[in-house]
Amino acid sequence: MTERIQELIAEIEALHAESAEQAEQLRIAYLGKKGKVTILFDDFRLLPGEQKRELGQILNKLKNLATEKIAGLKNSLSQVADNSDKPDLTLPGESMRLGSRHPISITRNEIVAIFNRIGFVVTEGPEIEDDWHVFSALNFPPEHPARDMQDTFFIEKSPDILLRTHTSSVQVRVMEKQQPPIRIIMPGRVFRNEAISARAHCIFHQVEGLYIAENVSFADLKQTLLFFAKEMFGEETRIRLRPSFFPFTEPSAEMDISCNLCGGKGCNMCKYSGWVEIMGCGMVDPNVLESCNIDSKKYSGYAFGMGIERIAILKHKIKDIRLFFDNDIRFLKQFEAVL
Ligand code: DAH
């Protein structure tokens, strides 16, 4: 019997189980009614008194060993099972998803940064304006079509309160308060009563520029805009100025850049002309200076204005202006890499 006990001790010590079920089967196999250890106790009862004393202790030890071993197996298996429900703290962390700047903000920041480098300071003005700052002070005649309900969102009539149709209104606000030299860049949101399409929206963004000092010439304007075009669209970019008309500048021009898609050879984007229009500009009309109490005999200056959407469309080759307002994450995500 002693031998049998030794055998069982070795056997029990080597026991292992893969699941709680297996551990239970082991318990039955060793400690159940017909279990290997239980059977030894049956045999033990038949032994003569002397041997009983000797073997009794060893047999009890065997039983304890089996009980503890199997309980231990069960315990460790139930711990594994419990852990599977809990988060595994050793897993590597999930990286946090970052948002991205809106392409309009990116483009505005880029434009502003370029002009900052040559001394232009950012200034902003209100989106809800009066007739004076949006039209009258800017030399718009009373019958000008831009004053029409068709083009402008009016909030109140006489006195007219309206949503600004361009950022040129900020020029007036600054010149009324400050004497030259003035060198400012004015980004902002503007509103026009237009049907929404791939090419037009009733809300969009502009950047206005203004430089007023003594002896400012058209050549200064041209050089500044050439610098901007090269910084924004690349060193190989060329510009051209076409005569145009705006009530607040004289002379006025529209500026084109050589098409940044085909390099001027002609493509779909530039309608095979090699040029794309990016802004209006000109020398500030003396009437505007006088409306703002600036001496037009002493000072002259230039102004320019461009649509931020237009610049972003050209720069990133976007086909539909409405994408800027849909806020579809699949569109916005494409600008994650740009700061
Ligand atoms: N305000 C004009 C517009 O909204 C853009 C513009 C043209 C601004 C010429 C200027 C300028 O300052 O000189 O279409």
**Which strand order spans the largest sheet, edge to edge or round the barrel?**
1-5-6-10-9-8-7
Output the radius of gyration: 42 Å
Stated plainly, the CATH topology of the largest domain is called BirA Bifunctional Protein, domain 2
Describe the main β-sheet briefly: 7 strands, mixed
Tell me the CATH superfamily of the largest domain. Answer: Bira Bifunctional Protein, Domain 2
Distance between the termini: 83 Å
Helix residue percentage = 40-55%
Number of DSSP E strands? 10
- Residue stretches low in confidence (pLDDT < 50, at least 5 long) are none
Number of helices: 12
- Secondary-structure-based class equals alpha+beta
The 3D shape can be described as: rod-shaped
**Ligand inventory:** 3,4-dihydroxyphenylalanine
Give structural notes.
It is a single chain. It is built from twelve helices and ten strands. It has two domains: 2-84; 103-335, BirA Bifunctional Protein, domain 2 (2-Layer Sandwich), CATH 3.30.930.10. Helix 3 packs antiparallel against helix 4. With 339 residues, it is an alpha+beta fold. Strand 7 (239-246) and strand 8 (249-258) form a beta hairpin. 41% of the residues lie in helices and 20% in strands. 3,4-dihydroxyphenylalanine is lined by residues 166, 168, 208, 246, 249, 280-282, 303-305.
